[in-house]
């Protein structure tokens, strides 16, 4: 009887997974697992750069430990309750890299000479931006105080038409400037207010919060165009408990949530708080019997949170964040 053999059938591997199925999987993975998936094979690596990412819990960039060198950074992943240490992150950018913002997994940083860069700490890709020149600011001022915040309106890994927007201080006012991919210089945003405190990206549009609590929405597809203005909210009566004076200060934030809501948050800070948690006057720190002033650190006393009603173009007061949380600096 002849020996019957079956021809060898080549088994299918994980790299043969249909693209449609892989895309569905990638949209449900946390960021760390997406990074790991990109190392499986070339087809998975390509898919991870194209598939839309699911909403991610923000990572916090922490100061380095004393034993770390100046190129090492630590990142805290709240979802895993884990700290990742990355070595040689800013290698070649100087000894004192200064971060002025982050968006879409990219950092906006300034090197030792105040040259701005976009930097992805995971892929290590760098994109140098034009120097924002200002005759009134020296290098140290440019690095540490001139630029208040910078954001990206699109992910440079997925778009060749990204925009960077920043808040910068000039002549005792906080103004806006932007850089579009391919430009040679930064451009000041003409026609806007002259005092801004926060900016975010929502639906590829710029939301800019002014000190008077008004919000402007800007479109950048062609030339910058203001497409919507939202007037300041009527504050609750509880605000009267915290009068504006030297003992109480406020800070405003715009926040985009994982549910695609836009929030306006007002934070009330007691500049000097005693051991009982009461806001005190600065004169409380030193009496005639004291040789050393008391240490009374500041403390956040209250938040007011409003959600934007896009149809009505007005803010609605929220009583609870429910199952969401926000990071505020």
UniProtKB/TrEMBL annotation:
Pfam families: Beta-prop_KIB1-4, F-box. SMART domains: FBOX. Residues 11-62 form the F-box domain. SUPFAM superfamilies: F-box domain. CDD domains: F-box_SF (cd09917). Coiled coil: none annotated. This is F-box domain-containing protein. The lineage of its organism: Eukaryota, Viridiplantae, Streptophyta, Embryophyta, Tracheophyta.
């Amino acid at each position: 009887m002849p020996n019957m053999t079956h021809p060898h059938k080549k088994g299918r591997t994980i790299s043969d997974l249909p693209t449609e199925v892989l895309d569905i999987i990638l949209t449900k993975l946390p960021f760390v697992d997406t990074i790991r998936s990109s190392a499986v094979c070339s087809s998975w690596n390509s898919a991870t750069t194209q598939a839309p990412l699911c909403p991610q819990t923000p990572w916090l960039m922490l100061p380095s430990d004393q034993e770390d060198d100046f190129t090492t950074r630590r990142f805290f992943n709240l979802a895993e309750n884990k700290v990742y240490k990355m070595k040689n992150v800013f290698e070649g950018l100087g000894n004192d890299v200064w971060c002025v913002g982050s968006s879409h997994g990219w950092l906006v940083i300034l090197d030792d000479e105040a040259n701005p860069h976009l930097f992805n700490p995971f892929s290590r890709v760098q994109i140098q931006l034009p120097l924002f020149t200002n005759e009134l600011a020296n290098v140290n001022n440019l690095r540490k105080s001139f630029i208040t915040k910078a954001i990206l309106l699109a992910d440079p890994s997925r778009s060749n038409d990204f925009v960077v927007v920043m808040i910068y201080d000039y002549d005792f006012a906080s103004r806006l400037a932007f850089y579009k991919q391919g430009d040679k210089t930064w451009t000041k945003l003409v026609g806007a207010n002259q005092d801004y405190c926060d900016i975010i990206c929502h639906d590829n549009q710029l939301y800019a919060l002014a000190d008077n609590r008004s919000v402007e929405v800007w479109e950048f597809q062609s030339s910058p165009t203001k497409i919507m203005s939202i007037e300041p909210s009527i504050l609750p009566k509880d605000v009267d408990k915290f009068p504006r004076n030297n003992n109480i200060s406020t800070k405003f934030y715009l926040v985009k949530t994982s549910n695609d809501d836009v929030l306006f948050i007002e934070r009330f800070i007691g500049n000097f708080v005693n051991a009982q948690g009461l806001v005190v006057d600065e004169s409380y720190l030193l009496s005639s019997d004291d040789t050393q002033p008391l240490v009374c650190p500041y403390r956040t006393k209250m938040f007011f949170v409003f959600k934007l009603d896009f149809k009505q173009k007005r803010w609605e007061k929220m009583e609870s964040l429910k199952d969401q949380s926000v990071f505020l600096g």
